[in-house]
Amino acid sequence: MKKLLNNWIVQVLLFLSLLGLTAYGSQMINDIIPPYLLMIAFFIGINLIMALGLNLITGVTGQLSLGHAAFMSIGAYSSAIATVNFDLPFLLGVLIGGLIASVFGVIIGFPTLRLTGDYLAISTLGFAEIVRVQFTNMKITNGAIGFLGIEGSTTFPIVMTIAVLMICLMVWLENSRNGRAMLAIREDEVASSAVGINTTLYKIQAFAIGAFCAGVGGALFAHTTTFIQPTDFGFQKSVDILSIVVLGGLGSIPGTIIGAIVLTAAPEILRPLSNYRMIVYGLLLVVIMIFRPYGLMGGVNLRQAVRRAMMFPKKKQAGREE
Amino acid sequence: MPILNNLMQQLVNGLALGSIYALIALGYTMVYGIIGMINFAYGEIFMFGAYAGLVLALTNYVNVYVALLGATFITMVLGVVIERVAYRPLRRSSRLSALISAIGVSFFLSSLMVRVKGPNTRGFPTLFENRIFEIGDFQITIYQIVIIGVAGLLMLSLHLFVTYSKMGRAMRACAQDQDAASLMGVNIDRVISVTFAIGSGLAGAAGVLAGIYFNAVQPYMGLLAGLKAFAAAVLGGIGSIPGAMIGGLVIGLTEILGVTVNLSEYKDAFAFAILILVLLFKPSGIMGRKANKKV
Amino acid sequence: MSLLTLDNVTIRFGGLTAVDTVNLEINQGEILALIGPNGAGKSTVFNLITSIYQPTEGTISLAGKPLVGIPTHKIAEMGITRTFQTIRLFSELSVLDNVKIGAHCRGKAGLFQAFTRLPGMKREEAEIEEKAIKALEFLDLATKCEEMAKNLSYGEQRRLEIARALVSKPKLLLLDEPAAGMNPQEKVVLMEMIRRIRDTGITIFLVEHDMKLVMGISERIAVLDYGKLIAEGTPLEVRSNNAVIEAYLGSGKFKSRIRR
């Protein structure tokens, strides 16, 4: 049985059936739950996709980015242009959105590699502001007025399937040579290069993949709301996504999932209090940092549990203690 | 020579704007110099100062000096409280935690102000009559004179304070080596509190000046102003007080010059473009010293 | 045969010459110790070899291949790994992961492999894991595999750093004060370990303050003072070298340290 599970083809089949099951299950949910709840579920999925990307950049690789909304906006606008101006199919538009965002991830990744910590954070923020100003002044994006007439092609099964796909990819990445190198960079850059890790390369990879996620999320967002404008992608949006990652626990994928659910659903559930949402957000960030600097799921060793379940189910574990 | 006149005129405008940025930049630079963190909430302290000035100005008995002093005092207290509550517990944690906490404070303050005073832009009551002086071919308003004058005075007093007072010496010692300073009997907590108080007070004063100058106060005004001031601090060389002044003036001038050459839609992007360029090519800034990597 | 050659290596930080025209050869398979008073520039020499600093003048070469100007991460690939004076572990990661990361430069898998998980990638993962566990067994840490690195004792952390440096099978291992903070029993064990590492064919270059350890295991000792190499030779020669005694003792109050 174990041998069978370790076979690559079996694993691929299992993976595909997981995706199929997700698509089927979310179609069922789509048909039964009321539209209002469905909308919340949509945004949980979209936020989760984007937050997984930021989790890779900030949580795993330790590079604080305050410009995630910029990648989102690049994905949103380029996919909208692809489907509206060039009549391309929706899913291709999503892919294009992700790829173009990813290219910008590399472009912003390159120069900022020379920076660390606070300086990096501020320059990503500056980059995001420049991108926003640029979108406000471009003709093709219809400037500050906003991009109208995007088709609402995003469906719930698509969002959920992409989200599950992204989760799988992230878990795999974290448990690979590349993922370990990224974690090492977060922990200690000097020691990382001393063991032979090309820190530049892996930071760029993290930025590229993280930006790709944000771009895909942005594309899905654009084709959900059917209307986007530069103010949708301000600093606040970047902080929204960062809060998801921080609340869940930097570097923790289960944490990111929980964070996405809680922070997307909570304002809706507390609708009467929604005026205080931003105040609570602010306080929450401070309080979490003081009392649980590693987030809700920080220090909970699910990563190792997942790895044991997924990768090395049989190796030399008897002698090891948790 | 209309172009030259125009340029002189823009230099004066840029100087006034730059003085405001420089005042906020001083706070960033002082805190960074001493505890090595970016107090992300400075922009919001600036905004609070503007509102405090507004509220004071709306009571009929208050003149401009009282509004300025009152706002400065209120933001000083605010700065000290923020440091106590949100930063001090994190002093030994990672910089990421402290930065995120600061972002939290910044969100908290701006959204609190939206709740209390509403999201709309408010005008500033006239505290004194604006007059225009013609010097040669260009004009300077009394507002601009007051802004440049007050900013200059504050910077000069800060410089004297840091250079000659006992507390100033303690601050410089802490910036060099906190542990050593504390072994020499410097009360680190107090020095940090004083630093926050001074920095926040300067930001608060800048807020009132900006409110008078632009005749507009708004809960989100702090974010952009704060970021530009931070850009100014980095440009000048973070940790350096004269650097912050020079950086502020440079950012103010570029912004105004950008508007002059018809790039006003991009004016908010200038500071960031400069910031990123500086970080890339001379991370230590104009007045900063190059630090050797310690291994 | 010389494995690593430092030729007229000099580095200045502003006005300070931290390492001053140092000429040094490390022979294949030996244990060489670099000693000297605090601030003599010993760790700087390590940072120069691993390209963390670039020399102001001079060249460094590994078996004839120049190292100056090569990025730090390539140095490990070429066969030089190191430990740090102030322990630099990946403290929030498990002991096993720390060592696996040490094997990074011997792996090949990239993003494609990470996302496709083809059998080849899994084989490489299994190999890395096996190597890592072997290295941990070698340093007597195998029982701590799943522990977080930050939860280990000081001595264990030092050994974990060695395991991490060892797993990529370097030609040359640089140990920066490996015994610092260890108790006497741990030091004895460490000495034994260093010898065993050398016996697997790895050349060892160490910086150390503990004279007992240095005198006990080194075949040759080089002495650095104010950035200059003032003596070089067998432990016996160095012990009786006047310049060394001068540098170390000065007023004479550290005599015990050398005579011990």
UniProtKB/TrEMBL annotation, chain A:
Pfam families: BPD_transp_2
A cellular component annotation (GO) from this entry: plasma membrane
Subcellular location: Cell membrane
GO molecular function, one term: branched-chain amino acid transmembrane transporter activity
Spans through the membrane: 35-57, 64-84, 90-110, 155-173, 206-229, 241-266, 278-295
Membrane topology note: Multi-pass membrane protein
Keyword set, alphabetical order: Cell membrane, Membrane, Transmembrane, Transmembrane helix
InterPro entries: ABC_transp_permease (IPR001851), LivM-like (IPR043428)
Protein name: Branched-chain amino acid transport system permease protein
UniProtKB/TrEMBL annotation, chain B:
Membrane topology, from the record: Multi-pass membrane protein
Subcellular location(s) of the protein: Cell membrane
Keywords, ordered alphabetically: Amino-acid transport, Cell inner membrane, Cell membrane, Membrane, Transmembrane, Transmembrane helix, Transport
Top-level taxon of origin: Bacteria
Gene Ontology molecular function: any one: L-isoleucine transmembrane transporter activity
GO BP term (any one): L-isoleucine import across plasma membrane
One GO CC annotation: plasma membrane
Residue spans crossing the bilayer: 12-33, 64-86, 98-118, 138-162, 191-214, 269-288
Family, as annotated: Belongs to the binding-protein-dependent transport system permease family. LivHM subfamily.
Protein name: Amino acid/amide ABC transporter membrane protein 1, HAAT family (TC 3.A.1.4.-)
Organism: Desulfosporosinus lacus DSM 15449
From TrEMBL, chain C:
Protein origin, superkingdom: Bacteria
CDD domains in alphabetical order: ABC_Mj1267_LivG_branched
SUPFAM superfamilies xrefs: P-loop containing nucleoside triphosphate hydrolases
Every ABC transporter domain range: 4-251
InterPro entries: AAA+_ATPase, ABC_AA/LPS_Transport, ABC_transporter-like_ATP-bd, ABC_transporter-like_CS, BCA_ABC_TP_C, P-loop_NTPase
A molecular function GO annotation: L-valine transmembrane transporter activity
Chain ranges passing through the membrane: none
Keywords: ATP-binding, Nucleotide-binding, Transport
Gene Ontology CC: one annotated term: plasma membrane
rRNA-binding found in the keyword field: no
Pfam families in UniProt: ABC_tran (PF00005), BCA_ABC_TP_C (PF12399)
Entry keyword Transport: yes
Stated name of the protein: Amino acid/amide ABC transporter ATP-binding protein 1, HAAT family (TC 3.A.1.4.-)
Annotated organism of origin: Desulfosporosinus lacus DSM 15449
